[in-house]
Amino acid sequence: MRSNEVSGSTLAYLGDAIWSLKVREYLIEKGYARAKDLQTKSVKFVSAKAQAAFYYKLEEEKFFTEQELEIFKRGRNFKSDSVPKNTDVATYRVSTGFEAVLGYWFMEKMMDRIDLCWDKVKTMVEV
After folding, report:
1. Of 11, 19, 45, 127, which shows the fewest CB atoms inside 10 Å?
2. CATH no. for residue 98?
3. How many domains does the structure of the chain reveal?
4. What is the pLDDT of residues 8-29, one digit of tens each?
């Protein structure tokens, strides 16, 4: 299956899993072992607010290609039936768009883009 055969929300669903794995791997490599510490630190990377901030910073740096921005819009524009209680709709949609790009990269086997994005993002957060 190719990325153009699935919805923006499906790409975001996959991207969420990819991102969570990158974050967990990173935190464990940093030496965190207690579940409470892992959860507290991971929120700095996986919350809608954090992901929206990463997107805006990367977009400011012109990190995304035109194709990736189209994928972002597919994820962002998906109308979800629910929004997390700790964020506003606009932030949640930007976060979903960011996750859709991650899912797109994974489906298209563009692991180098995932790794490059991760390398940039992890320098933005102090853990």
Report:
1. 127
2. 1.10.1520.10
3. 1
4. 999 999 999 999 999 999 999 9
- Reply yes or no on whether 119 is catalytic: no
Within-domain flag for 127: no
Question: What are the angstrom distances between the C-alpha of 125 and each of 34, 49, 50, 68, 73?
Answer: 20, 13, 9, 23, 25
Q: Are 114 and 105 in contact (CB under 8 A)?
A: yes
Establish if 61 belongs to a structural domain.
Answer: yes
Calculate helix-pair angle for 66-76, 8-29, nearest 10 degrees. 100
- Residue 126 maps to a domain: no
Enumerate residues 6+ apart whose C-beta is below 8 A from 105.
Answer: 15, 18, 111, 113, 114, 117
